[in-house]
Fold this protein.
Amino acid sequence: MKDALIFSLTTSKELAKKISTKSNIPMGECEVVRFADGEIMARCLSNVKGKTCYVVQSTIAPSSDSLFEIFIFVDSLKNAGAKEINLITPYYGYSRQDRVAQKGEPITAKIVANLLQSCGINQLISVDLHTQQIQGFFSIPVINLETSEIFGEYLVKRFAQLGIKHEDVVVVSPDHGSANRGRDVSSIFNNASLAVIDKRRPAPNQSEVTNVVGDAKGKTCVIIDDIIDTGGTINNATDALFKKGAKEVYVAVTHAILSKDKLDPRIKEFITTDTVEKHVKNATVLSVADLIAKAIISE
């Protein structure tokens, strides 16, 4: 793409390089430093006058720092005369607070949307937003890329290698909010069935399984979700499936936050993507670089 540059801040350096290679858009140079008191300075070192810029940054922990790097760097690009500034946020932080569940709760997903728009970005590109309604918090174009095909194609190939028949596969949503993701992945199989975990949250970062809707007995189960943080939801779902007679359990999750990094050892394979650049022991990591590059090129 002519007159375009890709910039990486601190959280998605390797992914930004892959996107650059896939899209044939060169990397721009930037500098991010922290002063002695913790304040951030991020500035553009390339000539961006009249150019379209893509800033790659997942807003992972510490989320406030990740966001402030974006705010400050976008202002640097504006001051340097950039024609257009597109933010690529593979993982959109603060997304789980997207509605008022209890009186007095903030809608942090909307707060972040307002802040990003106010700093001057022209478009947002993200991967597997926690809920579709987050797109409605923006008045600028939002492209939400989905990983269903990436996971589905990998699993179909993997199970063919292992001799697992499609009719012996159950795609499992760990809660009702993930049912659409489970359905999309299951559609890539022939004759795979679906199951949904009924759960409740007694407190933040805690979950309890109340029921498994669907037949898991003797089946190869694949749990599909967008975010794994403490691992509680996935581990509880895994335990519930084994209690229902599951033969084995695979897990495919887009954003591997893994703040506690504790997965049930009975999980046959943990599959994730590089939206969060974190080493996860024994994980299969699929890249979203091609998905993002295609979205950029097709604009």
In short: The chain has a mean pLDDT of 92. The first strand starts at residue 4 and ends at 8. Helices lie at 13-23, 63-79, 108-119, 148-162, 179-186, 232-243, 289-297. The chain has seven helices and 14 strands.
